[in-house]
Design goal:
Layout lengths: L2 E6 L3 H12 L4 E5 L5 H6 L1 H19 L14 H25 L3 E4 L2 E5 L2 E4 L2 E10 L3 E3 L25 E5 L3 H12 L3 E5 L11 H14 L2 E3 L4 E6 L4 E5 L5 E3 L1 E4 L3 E3 L6 H4 L22 E3 L10 H16 L13 E3 L5 E5 L2 H8 L2 E8 L2 H6 L5 E8 L5 E7 L3 H13 L4 H6 L16
Parallel strand pairs: 1-2, 1-6, 2-3, 6-16, 8-9, 8-14, 9-10
Antiparallel strand pairs: 4-5, 5-6, 7-15, 11-12, 12-13, 17-18, 18-21, 19-20, 20-21
Length: about 450
């Protein structure tokens, strides 16, 4: 065999697996057809979060006046933010490539296809490997509707020549809400249309209801239970035709209706790799496919589509194959966030899930106006919620919406993962004055 491990896809999961396997002494190669770094670094979490930071200055500059700052001549230049964000992406891309090179991982730049269970073809060249890891991620889903190609996806949104005057975003999940917040703060007229009747379907209802209320107060428009029929090109942009409502016109249309695993064109059939009912690569608890020497990690398996999960899955595979370290990824109590405006953070069970699991639960909430918002004259309230198993007093869920909620949530996730009780939360002295002190003051 030419290699001990061949990785298809140099995103977060693939790069981690490659680095760890090489560190254990394995001969490793990785193929990437786009740019090293994957969705998160190149066209996802990182550039998105930088846009969130940039957009939030719109409110910060307004609030600054109440704190004594006299500002004049404010102006926003989209090209400056866009180009600086893309430059940071370039920098990170280089760091990821350097990581592979310094660990003596061979990089093939091109599309890789499985020829059989041990052979991969890239740009006409065939190589063999004892083990193969599929880490090709996922891509934005674009429905098969007439004119669907007139819309863009999150892949293209970071490269806009100019900001639109009005944007329509299709979807109700985290990507739709995050870009709704970004564009609105940058002065764009935003309408979010959703085929369902709620935002963030799997999230704690109190949080998604609060986000909807605040977003509407800010001026973001929502249309629910909308069945899209087609997109039509107009002189100024695009017209969205709906089944039971009037058409909606916009300069730009953004698809944010979900993501689909990248399984096409990989030669999975030739190698005999099975897909599940969702079209993702089917794997077991060790990330092994039905073919004993072929593994898959990250979004292509559609388990939990989060970068830290892909990293752990790739690390686990490499450790087990080459490091004699037998461990599995624990998918219990995985924290998540939505970087909307304001952001959300969540870990553990919702109230409904806890009731289904334990029967009797106790729920504690703190609904408050952050100190900064008070002085700024911003009537925007935060909401923290703890869900407790009544029998054991263990805190089994924490959910929050408000400034810096994801930053606060990370520390809370440690406590919940460790199985701490509400009494232990109560015994912890509050750090005053902070928003996070609310977590230990709920009675």
């Amino acid at each position: 065999m030419d290699y001990d491990l061949f990785v298809i896809g140099a995103g977060s999961g693939g790069v981690r697996a490659s680095r760890i396997a090489a560190g254990h002494g394995a001969r490793v190669a990785v193929a990437e057809e786009y740019r090293v770094g994957g969705t998160c670094v190149i066209r996802g979490c990182v550039p998105k979060k930088l846009l969130v930071y940039g957009a939030h200055f719109a409110e910060d500059l307004v609030d600054a006046r109440r704190f004594g700052w006299q500002l004049s001549g404010k102006a926003f230049d989209w090209a400056t933010l866009r180009d600086n964000v893309l430059a940071e992406v370039d920098r990170l891309n280089g760091i990821y490539q350097t990581t592979l090179d310094s660990n003596k991982v061979t990089t093939f730049h091109g599309h890789a296809t499985l020829v059989d269970t041990n052979t991969v073809e890239i740009n006409g060249e065939r190589v063999t490997a004892k083990h193969i890891l599929i880490a090709t991620g996922a891509r934005p889903l674009v429905p098969a509707l007439p004119g669907a190609e007139l819309g863009i996806t999150s892949n293209e949104v970071f490269h806009l020549d100019k900001l639109p005057r009005k944007i329509v975003i299709a979807g109700g999940g985290y990507i739709a809400n995050e870009f709704a917040g970004i564009f609105h703060e940058l002065g764009v007229d935003v309408t979010l249309i959703n085929r369902g009747d709620t935002l963030l379907r799997s999230w704690e209802p109190a949080l998604r209801e609060r986000l909807l209320m605040i977003s509407m107060q800010k001026g973001i428009k929502f249309q629910f239970n909308c069945k899209m029929q087609s997109l039509e090109k107009t002189e100024s942009g695009v017209r969205v035709h709906l089944a039971d409502a009037d058409p909606v016109d916009a300069d730009l249309f953004l698809w944010a209706v979900g993501r689909r695993p990248n399984v096409e064109g990989l030669g999975l059939e030739a190698a005999g790799v099975e897909l599940d009912e969702r079209g993702a690569v089917r794997v077991d608890a060790d990330s092994r496919t039905n073919v004993p020497n072929i593994y898959a990690v990250g979004d292509v398996t559609d388990r939990i589509q989060l970068t830290p999960i892909a990293i752990r899955e790739g690390h686990s595979v490499a450790d087990r194959l080459f490091g004699d370290k037998q461990w599995r990824v624990d998918y219990n109590c995985v924290p998540s966030a939505v970087f909307s405006n304001p952001p959300l953070g969540s870990v553990g069970m919702t109230e409904a899930e806890a009731k289904n699991n334990f029967g009797t639960v106790r729920v504690f909430t703190s609904d408050f106006r952050p100190m900064r918002n008070v002085l700024a004259g911003r009537n925007e309230r935060a909401l923290y919620k703890l869900v407790v198993d009544a029998a054991s007093d263990r805190v089994v869920g924490a959910h929050m919406i408000g400034p810096d909620a994801p930053e606060v949530l990370q520390a809370v996730a440690i406590a919940i993962k460790a199985g701490l009780t509400k009494a232990q939360f109560d015994d912890t002295v509050a750090l005053h004055p902070t928003m996070s002190e609310e977590l230990v003051l709920m009675r």
